[in-house]
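Anyone? Bumping this.
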Amino acid sequence: MSKAYDTEILSVGTELLLGHVTNTDARDISEMLSKIGVNVRYHTVVGDNPQRLEDCVKVAKERADIIITTGGLGPTCDDLTKQILARAFGLELVRNEAEYQGLYEYIQTGRMFTPNNFQQAMLPEGCTVFHNEWGTAPGCAFEKDGKTVIMLPGPPKECNAMFRACVIPYLQKFADGEIVSHSLRIFGLGESTVDQMFRDEMNAMTNPSMAPYAKECDCLLQVTAKAETREEAEEMLKPVIAHVREKLGEFVYGMDVECVEEAVIGLLREKHMRFSAAESCTGGDIAGRFTEIPGASEFFLGGVVTYTNEAKARLLGIDPALIEEKGAVSFEVAKEMAERVRTLMGSDIGVGVTGLAGPDGDGVHEVGTVFVSLATAEQTWVKELHMGAFRTRSFIRRMAGNHVYDMMRRYLTGLNVL
Amino acid sequence: MSKAYDTEILSVGTELLLGHVTNTDARDISEMLSKIGVNVRYHTVVGDNPQRLEDCVKVAKERADIIITTGGLGPTCDDLTKQILARAFGLELVRNEAEYQGLYEYIQTGRMFTPNNFQQAMLPEGCTVFHNEWGTAPGCAFEKDGKTVIMLPGPPKECNAMFRACVIPYLQKFADGEIVSHSLRIFGLGESTVDQMFRDEMNAMTNPSMAPYAKECDCLLQVTAKAETREEAEEMLKPVIAHVREKLGEFVYGMDVECVEEAVIGLLREKHMRFSAAESCTGGDIAGRFTEIPGASEFFLGGVVTYTNEAKARLLGIDPALIEEKGAVSFEVAKEMAERVRTLMGSDIGVGVTGLAGPDGDGVHEVGTVFVSLATAEQTWVKELHMGAFRTRSFIRRMAGNHVYDMMRRYLTGLNVL
């Protein structure tokens, strides 16, 4: 950046203030902007209320150079955002013929359409129009009074796609120099431990810089450098990354991946291996998370969700007497689950998980007790976890899955599995 | 409310502005506040920057009566939020002995702890302390200059639990009269259609009121009434709910439920029925979503994730020749999946789903083509869906699941399944 362009994301929608939806637009846009080195300084959310929106625009005009709005463009809110932003910058809304024509053609297809949809073709005079290929409300951008205003529709799919396709190219002119960031993902150490380990170094660094962030069930250390070119920035980061990897060792499960399973898919590809899963308390979550990744089908043969004892017997052939004796939540049953699903599916690796995700217990174990297992042709490993009864069902399920994937990662990279 | 208390939620954390995490705290708090009739007017997010946070506090002080902060309380940010808020209201931070003692005892357990954690016991003089049973950083509240300030830690689990346990009771004094809301959840009609159907009525209503909201794969109509007592508000809502139910008929899948599967679990309980699932393109998502609901184990016998053709043959015994002839993504295979998983598991209902979630196609069908099926002892139904190749993998998977659950709902309530 020749100068720092402070950016504010202003999201419009009463549904956000009522908590009906989460503001993922602001998150997604922020992430994309941080990658091209534009500084997001503020997120604001305001309802479908003209006066309050106008006040928020005033505040944003004072403190930001770039204002990006999301939402308030559809027919259900009378295109509030366009009206207010145009007025705040002294612009008229004029009918855009191409967009009007597009809306008109859309009706001819016989799809659901209501007269108020036509307001969507009214746009601030002289603006750059962002045609919406994922919905009907176009976005737009204009520059006035030394500020840049960008307006996008609210539905996350549309907002996200248009930001990528239209806004990033539009904003390129504000960029000079390149900012490069990498995330080192960490499993098995908490954010505050990581912070403590690197705090003195971090305080002494400016460019490159380094910062830890907590995620739901793991954490990350982000390293960032700014230079004339992308290549130079990458060079600056290399020694920092090497240092972090050395200091954290096997706790680093990957760089620039979103989750442990994403690291695992890369390792399975490398080793030409496939796995299958037998799930009890995670109830399909391990399979579901993995298959959310495009291309997963090559490495995941399938799985069984044996949520009941009956299913464990029927699908996996586990002896009901063993379940009776040891309990469904036990070392032995976890072991059998991984081994049997592996044989049943004919995969290189079988994983299993059985435990208590709560809220109800089984009278034997505390909620949060989970056994996770990994079986190969040579050996089976079982790990007993105690996450604490105060954890939510959803946390316990997610964390159990992370442990399963982390065991796979450790196995596939030749580390100690347990 | 004797007067309207305008509330602003001010979230502090650079990780939010970088898009590393989504601001679920603001969403969760907003939802809880809307239920007790407190009006959230603004959400603001600002980074771990003293000057910008101070400026945001100034703005919030001017426009809001209640300021609720989240984040910026932990050791990694030097308790920025407390420092700035205390200063903005002319208060000193003083050591809270009970919290200090608690932190001291925490160390004795041998858990990870760093010296900077002790800052957490420093709190604004005279504040109400909210002890954090889910983490180490306490929250607090104070009243000054006619404003109420509430500070909570950022980690969603802690923020959420403390809001429920400490803040809601604290805020009761601001409430007089009761606001009651119900959400009618709709599947099969878009938000803008619902908006159009009810627009004139909605414009004419004030109390009770009604508003449509879009969700990712369905939508809802929220009805709200305010009265002296909860009972009176409920009475006011009855005719509105009856009217909406009549006008939308079978498109309403439930009231005050979060998703179709939550409506389904209630129906399965009523009918004493259990189901099982055979999943291909949803890859465990249908099982995973259902088992996320506490108590799901009574109604879900288990399932198979037959992600590959081989798994369809091995686990379900589907004839490879049939898959060869008709294709894995076909009416016939979907039908067999539901029927065979039902028999295999011995459940009342079997459901199946096979399709293309993308991004890669199979050279035959367009991405977004999905067959969903439901089998009972008497009959099997198969529905062919075309969601459009522009949809994301995750949308296609979620929507396919919604269709499966909606078919179950329709079957269980005696409606036409297709």
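Late reply, but here is one note on the structure posted above: Chain A has 14 helices and 17 strands.
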